[in-house]
Specification:
By secondary structure, this protein is mainly alpha-helical. It has helices spanning 2-5, 20-25, 35-48, 56-86. It is 63% helix and 0% strand.
Length: 87
């Protein structure tokens, strides 16, 4: 549904809306500034040039869809187990 109702993706800079240009080069009309913009840019660059030889898309899915959620579940499970031992 999103793909059908959204405009076609563009890599060109559009002053009125974010496009893939903003993702790839930084958003000139975005709200991030200072250290936040630097961290965001470093994250994008690391995902593109990761040490595993994966594509940006593959690395993004691996890190943010699989690994981070697993780490959060593991940390939560460890916390629950510690609470049970002390109760």
């Amino acid at each position: 549904m999103v793909n059908e109702t959204s405009p076609a993706p563009s890599s060109q800079l559009d002053q009125s809306a974010c496009t893939r240009y903003c993702h790839n080069h930084g958003c000139p009309h975005g709200t991030l500034s200072g250290w936040q913009a630097k961290v965001y840019a470093a994250n994008i660059n690391w995902l593109k040039a990761n040490p595993f030889g994966l594509s940006y898309q593959q690395m993004n899915l691996l890190l943010y869809v699989i690994l981070f959620p697993l780490m959060i579940v593991f940390a939560l499970w460890s916390l629950i187990r510690k609470r049970r031992k002390h109760a």
